[in-house]
TrEMBL record:
Chain's role: General (non sugar-specific) component of the phosphoenolpyruvate-dependent sugar phosphotransferase system (sugar PTS). This major carbohydrate active-transport system catalyzes the phosphorylation of incoming sugar substrates concomitantly with their translocation across the cell membrane. Enzyme I transfers the phosphoryl group from phosphoenolpyruvate (PEP) to the phosphoryl carrier protein (HPr).
InterPro entries, alphabetized: PEP-util_enz_mobile_dom, PEP-utilizing_PTS_enzyme, PEP_util_AS, PEP_util_C, PEP_util_CS, Phosphohistidine_dom_sf, PTS_EI, PTS_EIN
GO cellular component: cytoplasm
Protein name: Phosphoenolpyruvate-protein phosphotransferase
Required cofactor(s): Mg(2+)
Subcellular location: Cytoplasm
Domain of life: Bacteria
Active site: 183 (tele-phosphohistidine intermediate), 499 (proton donor)
Reaction(s) this enzyme catalyzes, per UniProt: L-histidyl-[protein] + phosphoenolpyruvate = N(pros)-phospho-L-histidyl-[protein] + pyruvate
Residue span(s) of domain PEP-utilising enzyme C-terminal: 248-537
GO biological process terms held by the UniProt record: phosphoenolpyruvate-dependent sugar phosphotransferase system
Keyword annotations of the record: Cytoplasm, Kinase, Magnesium, Metal-binding, Phosphotransferase system, Pyruvate, Sugar transport, Transferase, Transport
Amino acid sequence: MVLNGVGVGRSVAVGPTLRMPEPLSEPVDEVATEPQQEAFARVQAALTAVSEDLSARGEKAGGQAQDVLNAQALMAADPTIVEDIEARLGDGKTGERAVFEAYAGFRDLLVQMGGYMAERATDLDDVSRRVIAQLRGVPAPGIPESDAPFILVAHDLAPADTALLDLGKVMGLITREGGPTSHTAILARSKSIPAIVGVEGAENLADGTLVVLDAAAGTVDTSPSEADVLDARQRIAERAALAAAPLTPGALADGTPVPLLANLGSADGAAEALAAGAEGVGLFRTEFLFLDASAAPTVEEQYVEYERMLRAFVGKKVVVRVLDAGADKPLSFLNDAPEENPALGLRGIRALRASEQILIDQLTALARAEEAVNGAGVLGAGRHGGGGAGERVDLWVMAPMVADADDSEYFTTVARELGIQVAGVMAEVPSSALVADQIFETADFVSIGTNDLTQYTLAADRLLGSVANLQDPWHPAVLRLVGMLGRAGRDAGKPVGVCGEAAADPLLAVVLVGLGVTSLSMTPAAIADVRAELARHTTVEAEALARAALKATSASRARTAVSRLAAANAVG
Ligand code: PEP
Ligand code: MG
């Protein structure tokens, strides 16, 4: 049988499935029927089992992971917690409830202490859940443990789960929920794990089923023949060879350059991006630096971060996005008023216009960082990124969620007044495409955020699995808007990039170029695949693929039509 979903990337995986256990329900606060002594003995046995299991896993993992797991093993055996549990059993609580309440009490204490101690609160939660699972006789929650590599099947993955993914073990991901911009998809792309999200029927996959997961086709074959398995293994080997190919600049088969840039949230990812052949940074998500901040960061705090990023990319271009607060990325110091529809609320440039000093501080910090890296008083080099930046970094700054020419004029004026030389906007709200010619009167460049552009064009919340089928940037409605932006950019003689997840889908990347997009920015792990696919098509072919996509009547038909045509090109 073949299950269908939305594939992430182009890779293939073959292996047995393993299901992620369902989250545990909170133990009910009911009167205990079990005698207190028996309940305490059961709880003690569960605590010992969990403590021993955590130590054993620590020993196997070694390194930093061993320290974390040993600390958790100690928490499970902590005498103060054991005493607390015993006292609660004395008050007539059930074993599960006493464990739940005792750990919750200590957790709250840690949170009140703040700092490092507060960060341990989630470790305590994890121990509590493990003990309760042990008492119930069900598998421990979280990523399942296995000695052999497996393909993980889950309802969906939370960011906390994904941080624990052992890449040596998890060969692929299949989730019931999620769309192409869900956390699972973004993680899979950044770690190069083949994934299919939004798979109906995933919940019925029995553990140990041998499957072939084909991300390019968006399929999970649950009963592959021997030949299918062999074919998949050969494709895996071909991809491994591709990843080892030389790091040439992005270009179409006819030599038309298409710079391949990296999406980064801090300078920590710079080395990895450069190693993948990134030709610069196409989206620096500055809000990621300050997600936990309760007060607006100072100019000095920001300067340090920006200077670090700019230095890492000397000789290249760095496109910085000013703080994009709101909806899926709330920043308490920028917009903490409750809103009925935060995705349609005071977010992006709207929030910055309402708190102008925050925007001024950020632009000031950016201009100072550029000055520090490039040397004071040198103006104009590298404008519009034609290369030849030498030892200078080419700083471009853009505003998120720009709706129209007024937003564009406002942002670019403030940015230039504060010393930013190249100021542009993100096209994420459909209105920006409809008035793209007006926007180009003030913006030096446009970068298309296809994640939000898709969400708003199809009116489908990008965080909601139930509308995942609509969150597809292959939709011809989204592509028509991209085409309008591409044409307006060409008419104005200004660059139009894409920095949404669409740029990381190799075949869609070719379509975007065919629609007039001049650079692509993505998670560094996707660069090799996109580079290889671009090199298979000329400009004329890319434009033909774009026309086929625009003519299709749905996202899936666009994908199919373009895949067929691209395969024919490759043969011909
Ligand atoms: C986008 O919306 O496509 C984008 C690049 O911004 P973000 O995903 O950070 O909202
Ligand atoms: Mg966005």
